[in-house]
Write a structure and sequence with these properties.
Structural class: alpha+beta
Number of strands: 12
Number of domains: 3
Helix content: 40-55%
Number of helices: 15
Shape: globular
Strand order of the largest sheet: 6-5-4-1-7
Radius of gyration: 25 Å
Strand content: 5-15%
Largest sheet: 5 strands, antiparallel
Order of helices and strands: EEEEEEEHEHEEEHHEHHHHHHHHHHH
């Protein structure tokens, strides 16, 4: 922790923290030393999901990172953002504002590309592949990572290249934009369409997880001596409708269900330990109010996946892409976003569009693979340009004003573990 002030280091969402003060929440006092995870940041205020309590607001000075490694990561992340943000060469407004699905509460999300200055690419310390703002609304990838992702037809990366509002901040960004067709291929069938279908089915399984969790917690509350194997067997016996007739490995499915349950509750900051023991301890000491857990499935995820399928189908069918949705599809997606459509109906919508997706794939005129040679030439061109600006001493963020590379120092993270 040398050189790092735990009271000042940035705390991006997801950081595990420890509280330093007592906080009264309703009729309950959350004692100092409570464990939680950062959910939101609002200026100097931090919303923390406290284990067993829920979301509680603290000032920044009232929480510290839980682990030294997290503090080091947050400090390095903030250092890289400050140093390399001037090296961004292309950015786009993405997400709901680019899709025509924003409301008054929607964030303005930006993604883009930065070019590491020459000296950041020549030493022992590797240049970061990604930089991001503390509030997670801005993410920029290095040219190398961006091009690799685009070649895989990553939806977020291709969206950055093809949405309506793309801004080139440097000529190197314009080179990337000019070469964007090199990354288009029939691979979007899998990365957009089939990926979205698989994720929707996973969400459908998550619904079952939520619907059964109160029953499982009641079992453990009444009989805390139950073993994981006992609960798994009871799930299979009590809920045969979750397991199609003739399916094999029912006990294994039941056991996996329990594991998914405690992992989900741990990720939400509800239980203190990511294990069956943590689940039992929570259930054994929980009140009726504690067991009335929120449904963590977000309609946002479901409507976005359905949008991906529609985008992929149209792109494969016509060879053209438009990330902004309209008409009846837009109305349907907004209804899903508002939580007015049951997830099972969303999955049915997706399954009904699957044949159209497959048909578009069979007859698409998009190339089977992206243009590797063009992508490789683009990366060489940008790397050489960054080197030229440094060597020539150009007055820019890549020349005279280039940020110095990180100092070389020992990493004692393994020793601290």
């Amino acid at each position: 922790m040398a050189g790092i002030d735990p009271l000042r280091v940035p705390l991006p969402p997801g950081t595990e923290v420890v509280t330093r003060v007592d906080r009264v929440v309703g009729e309950r006092t959350v004692k100092a030393g409570a464990l939680g995870r950062v959910k939101h940041i609002d200026g100097d205020r931090v919303a923390v999901q406290v284990v067993g309590v829920g979301q509680v607001w603290y000032s920044r000075s009232e929480v510290v990172p839980c682990r030294a490694g997290q503090a080091r990561y947050a400090a390095r992340r903030d250092r890289d953002w400050t140093a390399l943000h001037p090296c961004v060469v292309l950015e786009a407004i993405v997400g709901s504002r680019a899709w025509g699905l924003a409301n008054e509460n929607s964030d303005t999300d930006r993604r883009g590309v930065f070019v590491p200055p020459f000296l950041w690419t020549t030493g022992l310390v590797p240049a970061p592949e990604e930089i991001g703002s503390i509030d997670a609304t801005c993410t920029y990838w290095s040219t190398h990572k961006f091009i690799q992702q685009a070649l895989r037809a990553d939806p977020n990366t291709l969206e950055t290249l093809f949405v309506g509002e793309v801004q080139t901040i440097d000529v190197m960004g314009q080179w990337i934009l000019d070469a964007r067709q090199a990354f288009v291929s029939a691979n979007i069938y899998g990365s957009f369409g089939r990926y979205a279908l698989s994720q929707l089915k996973k969400m459908q399984k998550a619904i079952a997880l939520i619907d059964r969790r109160r029953v499982v917690l009641d079992w453990l509350r009444t009989e805390p001596s139950l073993l994981l194997e006992d609960v798994a067997q009871r799930i299979v016996t009590e809920f045969p409708e979750d397991h199609p007739a003739g399916s094999s490995g029912l006990y294994v499915q039941g056991k996996q269900y329990v594991k998914d349950l405690y992992r989900s509750l741990y990720d939400q900051g509800i239980i203190a330990e990511n294990s069956f023991t943590g689940l039992v301890n929570f259930a054994e000491h929980a009140t009726e109010k504690d067991l009335d857990l929120p449904r963590e499935l977000r309609p946002k995820n479901a409507y976005n996946l359905l949008r991906l399928i529609a985008t992929a189908t149209e792109w494969l069918r016509t060879g053209e892409v438009n990330f902004q949705v309209s008409g009846s599809l837009r109305d349907r997606l907004l209804s899903i976003k508002r939580g007015e459509v049951d997830l099972a109906d969303v999955v049915q919508d997706a399954e009904e569009t699957a044949p159209m997706l497959d048909e578009a794939r069979r007859h698409t005129k998009l190339p089977e693979h992206p243009n590797l040679r063009a992508a490789d030439a683009l990366l060489h061109r940008i790397s050489q340009e960054a080197a030229r600006r440094w060597v020539s001493g150009e007055v820019s963020a890549f020349g005279l004003h280039a940020p110095p590379p990180p100092m070389l120092e020992w990493d004692d993270a393994k020793e601290d573990a």
